[in-house]
């Protein structure tokens, strides 16, 4: 980002530094006191992960990696949705080139978030199905506000979560719980998610969730940052390497799968159901 733009943004924000607002699909705000960056997704109505939001997420993660922030908190500007997961419109009757770019970008964004060298936490201030849950489970810590749901519901849509979605889920849940939940396409309420360990804490508001994420990141204050990040990377290296090695095959598998007539039909019916529900409200 241009230095002049950064400076004008710095002047605008009182105690927090707004580091990027380019497209406004994501913003990064660094708290001057804590040195922790809050990355906010802002794609109404549901933070559907389309190509552009994924691109912005990746560049915001890169920005936080580069600006010496002490940690990254991922959250949403919506009062009821963390992220509705992948934008189904990217996968339904897709454009040939765009869907390739979309999946490739999803891979890159996941590699950057799951492999981030800074401590990461998700302040889950709304529903978090599928790709939303992928983002949350790619972070090291999760704090969630009550009365929402989280989970990998892919089988409910007639689609299959790829191995690296499973890897993030498995970094949080025991294999038995993860396998059952994925097979069922189960969405957990906040209370259920806490009980099973899918989230670490609950909070009564987004602000409180962020405070709890800050406290989690604060637990590393006296830990050598290089030792901490190398340790984290060793834990995650096998999952990251597996996708790195199989990126092209993963893309081709996705394209083959998503273009199956039965999958397209299922996505169409699911989208229709979402739209009917929205009209009724
Ligand atoms: C062995 C072989 C292995 C092969 C493996 C390889 C590849 C695998 C292939 C595919 C894997 C792909 C992985 C996909 C993961 C995903 O993320 S899929 C997306 C899943 N998401 C969902 O199911 C969420 C659906 N949405 C909801 O449940 C609700 O919308 C909500 C999030 C709970 C919010 O509810 P609310 O009442 O507030 O809002 P509305 O429902 O009224 O929605 C408003 C508006 O937004 C539209 N919308 C909602 N979600 C999406 C979405 N995900 N994509 C696109 N659009 C969405 C909804 O239709 C409404 O639109 P409007 O009517 O035009 O206003």
TrEMBL record:
This protein's GO cellular component annotations are: mitochondrial matrix
Q: Which reaction does it catalyse?
A: (3Z)-dodecenoyl-CoA = (2E)-dodecenoyl-CoA; (3Z)-octenoyl-CoA = (2E)-octenoyl-CoA; (2E)-tetradecenoyl-CoA = (3Z)-tetradecenoyl-CoA; (3Z)-decenoyl-CoA = (2E)-decenoyl-CoA
The record's GO molecular-function terms, alphabetically, read:
delta(3)-delta(2)-enoyl-CoA isomerase activity
Q: Which InterPro entries match?
A: ClpP/crotonase-like_dom_sf, Enoyl-CoA_hydra/iso
Cell compartment(s), UniProt: Mitochondrion matrix
Pathway of action:
Lipid metabolism; fatty acid beta-oxidation
**What biological-process terms (Gene Ontology) are attached?**
fatty acid beta-oxidation
Q: Which residues form a coiled coil?
A: none
Annotated keywords: Acetylation, Fatty acid metabolism, Isomerase, Lipid metabolism, Mitochondrion, Transit peptide
**One Pfam family cited in the UniProt record for this chain:** ECH_1
Please tell me where this protein is predominantly located.
mitochondrion
Q: What does this protein do?
A: Key enzyme of fatty acid beta-oxidation. Able to isomerize both 3-cis (3Z) and 3-trans (3E) double bonds into the 2-trans (2E) form in a range of enoyl-CoA species, with a preference for (3Z)-enoyl-CoAs over (3E)-enoyl-CoAs. The catalytic efficiency of this enzyme is not affected by the fatty acyl chain length.
Note the subunit structure: Homotrimer.
Identification of the protein by name: Enoyl-CoA delta isomerase 1, mitochondrial
């Amino acid at each position: 980002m241009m230095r002049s733009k950064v400076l004008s943004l710095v002047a605008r924000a009182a105690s927090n530094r707004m580091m990027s607002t380019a497209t406004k699909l994501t913003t990064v705000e660094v708290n001057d006191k804590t040195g922790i960056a809050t990355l906010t997704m802002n794609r109404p109505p549901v933070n559907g992960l389309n190509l552009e939001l994924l691109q912005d997420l990746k560049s915001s993660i890169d920005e936080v990696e580069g600006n010496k922030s002490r940690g990254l908190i991922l959250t949403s500007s919506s009062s009821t949705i963390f992220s509705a997961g992948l934008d189904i419109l990217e996968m339904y009757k897709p454009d040939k080139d765009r869907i390739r770019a979309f999946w490739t970008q999803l891979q890159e964004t996941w590699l950057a978030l799951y492999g981030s060298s800074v401590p990461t936490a998700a302040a889950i201030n709304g529903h978090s199905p599928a790709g939303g849950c992928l983002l949350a489970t790619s972070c090291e810590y999760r704090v969630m506000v009550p009365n929402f749901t989280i989970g990998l519901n892919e089988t409910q849509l007639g689609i299959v979560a790829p191995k690296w979605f499973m890897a993030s889920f498995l970094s949080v849940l025991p294999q038995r719980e993860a396998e059952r939940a994925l097979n069922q396409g189960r969405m957990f309420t906040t209370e259920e998610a806490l009980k099973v360990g899918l989230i670490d804490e609950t909070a009564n508001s987004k602000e409180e969730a962020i405070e709890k994420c800050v406290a989690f990141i604060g637990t590393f204050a006296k830990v050598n940052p290089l030792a901490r990040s190398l340790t984290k990377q060793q834990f995650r290296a096998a999952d990251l390497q597996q996708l790195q090695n199989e990126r092209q095959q993963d893309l081709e598998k996705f394209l083959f799968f998503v273009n199956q007539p039965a999958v397209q039909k299922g996505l169409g019916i699911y989208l229709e159901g979402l739209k009917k529900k929205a009209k009724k409200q």
